[in-house]
Design brief:
The chain is mostly helical. The protein has one domain: Helix Hairpins. It has 3 helices and no strands. Helix 1 packs antiparallel against helix 2 and helix 2 packs antiparallel against helix 3.
């Protein structure tokens, strides 16, 4: 059986990789992937802490499934926005949309 600390270390690694990718990247799709890494790290933590604190119950797993569904919807909306930005500015870089006006 895999120890719980291994899952927590993996979750921490995913979280920090996602934050690092979001801060350093200028490509909108890469930034979206980084946000998904952060959300996956949070989902993993929900599942691990459910296993530790409430071994016979499934609340953490259901919350994780709900969070995965929200992440899928967020990804669909973000990709639609990125495609629209690309059509208008012919670039998927953050620098090209900094001068957007209201």
């Amino acid at each position: 059986m895999i120890p719980v600390s291994a899952f927590l270390v993996l979750s921490t690694l995913l979280f920090f990789l996602g934050v690092f990718g979001f801060v350093t990247r200028r490509n909108l799709v890469a930034m979206l992937i980084s946000v998904e890494l952060v959300l996956n790290a949070a989902d993993m933590n929900f599942a691990v802490f459910n296993r530790i604190l409430f071994p016979g119950q499934m609340e953490g797993m259901f919350f994780t499934l709900f969070s995965i569904g929200i992440s899928a919807a967020e990804t669909a909306v973000a990709l639609a926005i990125i495609i629209n930005v690309y059509r208008n500015y012919h670039s998927d870089q953050v620098n090209s949309i900094e001068n957007m006006k209201f």
